[in-house]
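Long-time lurker. I teach an intro course on protein structure, and each term I like to show students one example going from raw sequence to a predicted 3D structure in token notation. This year I'd like something fresh instead of my usual example. Would anyone be willing to generate the tokens for the chain below so I can use it in lecture? Attribution to the forum is fine with me.
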Amino acid sequence: MRADARKNRDHVLAVAGTAITEQGVDVSLRDIARRADVGLATLLRHFPTREALLEALLRTSFDEMTAQAGELDASSSPEDALVSWLRDCVAWTTEYRGVTVLMAAAIEDTESALHASCVTLRAAGARLLARAQAAGAARTDIDGTDLFALVAALAWLSDQPALAPRADHLFDVVASAILTSAGSTDTPGGERRPRARS
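-- Reply from a regular --
Happy to contribute to a lecture. Here you go:
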């Protein structure tokens, strides 16, 4: 790709990122082209579909979240690694409004431009979950698909103005429910909370 074409493509991506952050993934491609000061044909030449645009925009973040899972796996306790990755994954998915809906659909659609990245991300979380389960730190009746669904659900909560103030609290509730007695302690009321770190 010529330098000027790459510069043009990177500019469109930067504008698209801002537009999706502000308006969500359903923002008009024509509006993105207008804001980037390029023709719609130019945008479609680089990104023939909305999913192709999103895949290019999100690929770096997907790769970073996958790499982070590997780093946490090597450096943290099983329960810490799982909860830290889950928290960061939820935070990341809330950056672009509505992206969790597309991710949930793409995981089942092998033709989607987002499919491979979503499958890789789900597998990274599944490995952390399996490690925590093997250590007796996480319940064994959930799998990577369930974990991926919980990320989507928690991100959706954060995207609802009326519920956003409770998002952190509800994350803690879900995280405590994932952990078992090996990774949490019982409160007097019978609720579980993550085990205190030493």
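Some talking points for your students: Residues 9 and 179 are 44 Å apart (CA to CA). The mean pLDDT is 86.
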